[in-house]
Write a structure and sequence with these properties.
By secondary structure, the protein is α/β, with parallel strands linked by helices. About 55% of the residues lie in helices and about 10% in strands. The protein is built from 14 helices and 7 strands. The strands form 2 sheets. A 5-stranded mixed beta sheet has the order 3-2-1-4-5. It is globular.
Length: about 375
């Protein structure tokens, strides 16, 4: 016979060991610190089976972090509920200045029992692999950008600068770099080493982008990627990166939920009759938000469909085409209206990105709709 009806178990995870606490069900249920266990699959399984013999129902949780989703997948495979908690949304007392593994585990167990924790969306293994691939591509892009900046800084110290008004890192610019001569051999060695490092970074970026192109067709969200590519500012890399970070958009019940998840809604500190709104909250996934804002800059230009984009537009259903064209018209009007009112371009683009997220939600919904429903919308 089991001793208790329900138990709420919290892990404070780390690289080698996990601190464990449990809270019995009920408002006045006992909260106990169970100690530490090794961060291995065998130790977690042993603990779960031991607690399952004492409780009729168990719920587990731990903070999202560098340890990943292995504990979540292991516990759910054993038939128990598990939540991966968003660290930034964990309630904390303003005056609490003591942080230990034990206190964190006990606090998580109490909050789990009270229902005060917000769980993050957990991807499957394939989706997580796609996310790792797109993040590796982002790292390679930042590395290439740093290598190019080092070359530009070195040439500037030597009194060399590319023609003003000309675009950098084009074929013409690369020919100009190859023609540079230096009086001292040491400078020539430094320059050639920098150029070689830049070429290696460029090759790495190209290989990773090729891997993304090869992986998308077999991905569960490939149809949504194809639909998003019909929208201005989004290609396969940006669409795959956005979806890899955000996940399945069908879990958002409305466009506003997606906007809030991306941190693109205004912050607010209102009281009484006073309504005070501030800058965007910047909550949620920063990579997805950055990608969305970068893509939104294309909507400062008048609506049009280029020859390269036309093939991508023709590959999607009519319902998606209508949404993509409506987005071009509306977002360009929105941008011009905000600039006319004296708003900074960066502020205007942020507002455009917020509405752009709503159109992305609509496109994903249309792309995921049954064929009959899409046909009926023509």
């Amino acid at each position: 016979m089991r001793d208790h009806t329900e138990g709420f178990v919290a892990f404070d995870t780390s690289k080698l060991r996990n601190s464990v606490a449990i809270a019995d069900g009920g408002r006045n249920g006992e909260v106990r610190y169970l100690g530490e266990i090794e961060n291995t699959g065998a130790s977690v399984t042993k603990l779960v089976k031991k607690l399952a013999g004492k409780y009729e129902r168990l719920s587990f949780c731990y903070e999202a972090g560098p340890t990943g989703y292995g504990v979540y997948r292991q516990i759910t495979s054993l038939g128990h509920e598990c939540s991966v908690v968003a660290p930034t949304l964990i309630p904390k007392k303003p005056g609490d200045r003591v942080k230990t593994n034990r206190r964190d585990a006990v606090s998580l167990a109490k909050l789990l029992r009270a229902g005060e924790l917000t769980a993050v969306w957990v991807p499957d293994r394939r989706h997580e692999a796609m996310r790792d691939l797109t993040r590796a591509r982002e790292t390679a892009m930042l590395d290439l950008r740093a290598k190019r900046q080092q070359i530009s800084s070195f040439l500037l110290r030597q009194g060399l600068s590319y023609l003003e008004g000309k675009r950098s890192w084009t074929k013409m610019h690369m020919n100009w770099l190859a023609s540079q001569k230096f009086e001292l051999a040491e400078h020539r060695i430094v320059f050639e080493e920098m150029m070689e490092a830049m070429r290696q970074a460029q090759g790495r970026l190209e290989r990773l982008e090729g891997a993304i192109h090869a992986a998308v067709p077999d991905w569960s969200l490939s149809a949504v990627v194809t639909a998003l590519m019909a929208m201005r500012g989004l290609d396969m890399i940006s669409a795959a990166t956005f979806l890899a970070e955000v996940g399945d958009l069908s879990r958002f019940q409305s466009p506003y939920e997606l906007m809030a998840y991306l941190g693109l809604v205004p912050s607010e500190a209102s009281t009484g009759d006073k309504v005070k709104r501030g800058p965007i909250t910047k909550a949620g996934n920063r990579r997805a938000r950055r990608m969305l804002v970068e893509c939104s800059w294309s909507y400062q230009h008048p609506p049009r469909v280029s020859k390269q984009k036309q093939a991508k537009v023709d590959a999607v259903p009519q319902a998606v085409r209508d949404i993509a064209w409506k987005a071009q018209c509306r977002l360009n009007r929105r941008y011009r209206a905000l600039v006319r009112r004296g708003k900074l371009k960066t502020v205007a683009i942020t507002a455009v990105a917020r509405e752009f997220a709503g159109f992305i939600w609509a496109v994903a919904r249309a792309a995921s709709a049954p064929t009959t429903a899409v046909t009926g919308a023509k």
